[in-house]
Structures are given as structure tokens and as C-alpha cells.
Automatic annotation (TrEMBL):
It comes from Paenibacillus lentus. One of its GO terms (cellular component) is periplasmic space. It is found in: Periplasm. Keywords: Signal. Pfam families: NMT1_2. It comes from the Bacteria. Belongs to the bacterial solute-binding protein SsuA/TauA family. This is ABC transporter substrate-binding protein.
Length: 337
């Protein structure tokens, strides 16, 4: 029989059920974030782990990932609002700063902390010495991009002027460099994984040195966004950083084979053994950042690399173009996958 007690129950249920469902995620509503990655690469394994393991969803985020091939295109997409967050080299934020942008681009979480390219030779060179590059035809990367600048930094470290001591080829688009080398262009080439491992397996090239090992710690690939977006979406940026840090921990605590298996949906044309070899190589040289925080030492090394390449006009400090509060909070929270 209907009575006052029943009436109060249904009123309370009507008032509080929506809030309860919302708090439990019952409505399935996630905050969408459009992220543009500069390229698709095993170098970004933690990002794909975060996607596949649901770490973004755990933070209430729906990440819409798109590959915006090339640093210039990625930054253009960010500045125009086509994407909310960019995963690209930290040097791009410095270029925007140097142009006097009113709405600067701020780095907030690093994903990789070394250069990710390897020196590949057509012939096996067991006793390789950098002096052997003198006079060689070298298929390099795009001028002003981090791979090329880190490569030049490494070459100068070994007494080689890349523009005088080499026949340097830089007129080939990033996406076509591997194909150009495979077709016979150049004696040496600078390649990311998994292409380096693929070439080794196919007998098209041999990894003889690591530019990541030579150029030191760098905020090489970083999540960044416009200051205006960060101001309006502080909680979103924090949640994104949390998810990335969870993935960083996961990759460090699992085997290359496990990581390769998880990220394989993003590399459907690449065999698992090649993915495993690539992840193993990056782990061994410490390329995957264990922390999203951008250190002053690594930032200053980046400035030195850019200065050596003649691309730096202003030495902007890490405090000007990096916001580490998100990384520090994520680290303090010590999220466990």
C-alpha cells in the first residue's frame, strides 16, 4: 500500500540516483581529448600501452589519437585547434616561443628522454669508429628536427662536421627516408625503430651505433598544449599525465615481449619479434622516460643541441616552457597500473 514512507523513498531515489550513476561512471561519459602524435613509432610504446590497458579511461578521458606526420604539421594542428594536445619534440615549443607567440605552447609530460634513432650501415662494421664516416654519403633527417639536430650533435662530438665532412642528404621527407635507403640512396642512414630492426632482419642494413646513447638525456618527445588550453583544462592535463605515468611504470615493470604484445594492434604490419627487438633496444638505452617530469639538466642539453645546429635564438628556461606540477603530482601519487 502506498504511504508516506514509500513516497519519501522514491523522491530520494529520484534526486540522488543521477548523481550516484554519474559518480560511478554509469553514464559512460568521458572527457574527449584530441591528441596528435608526430609519427607512429615503437618509440612511443608507453602511449599505446596507456590506450590498450585503459589507463586513460580510468582517468575519465577518451583519447582520440591521430598521427599528424611531421613536427611542422603537428604544431600547426595544435595552434589551429585541430588537436588539443601534441606529442612531438620539445624543440617545436621553442620555435613557437622564438616567434613571439601570445599563446605559448607549454610542455607538461615527457614520454621519451633520449634520441630514438640509430646509425645504420649497409655493411656490417664490427669495429666501427666514427671517423669512418668521413666522406660518406649520409641520408639524414629534416633540418631543424630533433633527429637531425641530435645526429649533428653526436657527429660533432666525434670530430665530424656534418656539413663539411659528409655528403649529407636532407631533401627526403621523413616518411620516405627508409624507402629511399632501401632503394640505394646513401651509405649510412639515421633510422628509428622498428625500421632499424626490420632492415637488419631483411639484410638491408646493420645497426652500428645509437644516437640516443651519444646525445644524452633530452626531453625528446613531450606532451604539450597551448597555455590557454592548459588554463581552461587543468584537471584534464593532470589526468592525462597520470595515465601516461601509469603506462611508464607498466613498461618498466614488464618484459619487452609483453609490451610488444600489448602495442601490436598499433603495428599490424610488423611482426611481434621485430616489435620485441625494438622495445628491448629502447629499454636498454633508457629511451622510455621513467618519469613525466622534464628536468632542467635535460632541457639545457636540448638547448645546447639546438644551439649547435644553429636553430636556437633564445635560451628559454625550463620554467618558461615546461609546467612540471602535473608530473610531480603524478609521481607523488605513485599510480600503480
Amino acid at each position: 500500500m502506498w504511504n508516506k514512507r514509500h513516497a519519501l523513498f522514491w523522491i530520494a531515489l529520484f534526486l540522488f540516483l543521477p548523481a550516484f550513476l554519474s559518480g560511478c561512471g554509469g553514464n559512460g561519459q568521458l572527457h574527449k581529448v584530441k591528441v596528435g602524435e608526430v609519427t607512429r613509432s615503437v618509440f612511443y610504446a608507453p602511449q599505446y600501452v596507456a590506450l590498450e590497458k585503459g589507463f586513460f579511461e580510468e582517468e575519465g578521458l577518451e583519447v582520440e589519437l591521430q598521427t599528424t606526420a611531421g613536427g611542422d604539421k603537428t604544431m600547426t594542428a595544435l595552434l589551429s585547434g585541430a588537436i588539443d594536445v601534441a606529442l612531438v619534440g620539445a624543440e617545436t615549443s621553442i620555435y613557437v616561443y622564438q616567434q613571439g607567440a601570445e599563446d605559448p605552447v607549454i610542455n607538461f609530460a615527457q614520454l621519451t628522454q633520449t634520441d630514438g634513432t640509430f646509425l645504420v650501415s649497409r655493411e656490417q662494421m664490427d669495429n666501427f669508429d666514427w671517423s669512418q664516416l668521413h666522406g660518406a654519403v649520409f641520408l639524414g633527417q629534416r633540418k631543424g628536427g630533433m633527429p637531425q639536430m641530435a645526429g649533428e650533435f653526436s657527429l660533432r662530438k666525434h670530430g665530424i662536421d656534418p656539413h663539411r665532412d659528409l655528403e649529407l642528404i636532407q631533401n627526403i621527407d621523413f616518411a620516405n627516408i627508409a624507402a629511399a635507403y632501401a632503394s640505394g640512396t646513401g651509405q649510412f642512414v639515421q633510422l628509428f625503430e622498428p625500421q632499424a630492426s626490420i632492415f637488419e632482419r631483411e639484410g638491408k642494413g646493420h645497426v652500428i651505433a645509437s644516437f640516443g646513447m651519444e646525445s644524452g638525456r633530452l626531453p625528446y618527445t613531450v606532451y604539450m598544449t597551448k597555455q590557454s588550453y592548459m588554463n581552461k583544462n587543468d584537471e584534464v592535463v593532470q589526468k592525462l599525465t597520470h595515465a601516461i605515468h601509469k603506462a611508464q611504470i607498466w613498461v618498466q615493470e614488464h618484459s619487452p615481449a609483453e609490451t610488444a604484445s600489448v602495442i601490436s594492434p598499433f603495428f599490424k604490419d610488423t611482426d611481434l619479434d621485430v616489435l620485441e627487438s625494438s622495445v628491448k633496444r629502447y629499454l636498454e638505452q633508457g629511451s622510455y622516460a621513467e618519469s613525466p617530469e622534464i628536468t632542467e639538466e635535460a632541457w639545457n642539453n636540448l638547448l645546447d643541441v639546438m644551439e649547435g645546429a644553429g636553430e636556437l635564438k633564445v635560451r628559454a628556461s625550463v620554467d618558461e616552457l615546461a609546467e612540471n606540477k602535473y608530473a610531480k603530482f603524478a609521481i607523488k601519487s605513485d599510480p600503480s597500473p
